[in-house]
Predict the structure.
Amino acid sequence: MPNRINSIFTLEDTFVAYAVGDNGLILITRNHGETWQRLSCPVDVNLYTICFPGQGSIGYACGDKGTILRTEDEGTTWRKLSVPVDVDLRAIKFPISPEIGFVAGDRGTVLRTGDGGRTWEKLITTTEEKIMDINFPADEMTGYAVGLNGTVLKTTTSGAIWFSQATNIQGLVANTHFTAVHFPADDIIGFMTTTSGKVFFTPNGGEVWRPLPIEFPLPPLYSLDFHYDTMVGFAVGAKGTLIHTKDGGETWERIDSGTTKDLFSVRFFSDWLVGIIAGDERTLFYSGDGGSTWTPAVIKG
């Protein structure tokens, strides 16, 4: 039975973070990730992403079978929203406010809402590939979507038109599957992870993507988080993999994560001292020293 924690979301200037996972798992911590409590969930499907736009009390989560959930009370209660698809939805982002948001998933699906999730419009993406992650770094106009078989899409029209950036990717080989995309500060400098253990970088909004030099072989990477200065970053992946850069990805070092379980998410709070990693078999670790050392968290209930 799958038992993964798939994604973390930190409320940056608080002690609060959320996590979602398989079988309707929703967790909250109020002490920087040391202890977690389970929240009530109206569904038992796998959930893949959670977000709280504007760091407020309204939040969203998405998952299998067209599931989108909304809370208006900081996660205490959730309700399922009506969605015009039944595919698995893997990433949800509300760039600025809880009104305008996007969700993406299997069969090239991207949906947009302009009314806080009451209605959703299916957007045309020109791909049938599974989309694994989306990122709208600065506003609801410019966004990126990445997925299987070299899928990298960009929109500058709030999702009305998506165009492929696959031809802009240096060193792209067959069966390259992108797992996460992150633009730390704006829509110019960005990073992507792959199942082939690589990290790709763009300095110019995806006009060029190049693989960053990593001096050691890595298993699949699933998540990354970068400081807004775009220099300090972490990525996690299979077999407890945790890597760290201090120079924008030009050099990397391994860090002992404390586990050999697959890790699917890494997120830091705004001080970049406290971070959380999560993964298979409900693995949760937290760091209080900028990611140098990691301590197992406690899940209650």
User: Anything to note?
Assistant: The CA atoms of residues 89 and 105 lie 4 Å apart. The mean pLDDT is 97.
